[in-house]
Design goal:
two-stranded antiparallel sheet; alpha+beta; Alpha-Beta Plaits; 27% helix; elongated
């Protein structure tokens, strides 16, 4: 559970990698201390393997991705979903 009692798996906040845009630089993989990304030898594309390890609200990896291959839901979408989930799970935060 997150600090406001919403199960992390219910919060749709994690990156998506567009494989066609990814240039294989590995910056996202090396930057992310949450181990959201994986890199397999022989492949030249980052993969999101632990999406719910991503810190809710963090999207810093998008600023590091020069080919703009990483995307997240909009912050507006996140806020709407959090409001819904807070009502469902009874959190006042």
């Amino acid at each position: 559970m997150t600090s406001n009692q919403i199960p992390r798996e219910k919060i749709p906040w994690f990156p998506t990698v567009n494989a066609e845009k990814c240039n294989g630089c590995r910056v996202c993989f090396e930057f992310c201390q949450q181990h959201v990304y994986a890199w397999e030898e022989g492949e030249n594309v980052a993969k999101v393997v632990q999406p719910f390890n991503c810190t809710v609200g963090c999207s810093y990896c998008t600023t590091l991705c020069t080919p703009q291959a990483i995307s997240f839901p909009s912050e507006e979408t996140l806020m709407e979903k959090l409001r819904e989930l807070r009502e469902k799970y009874g959190s006042k935060k």
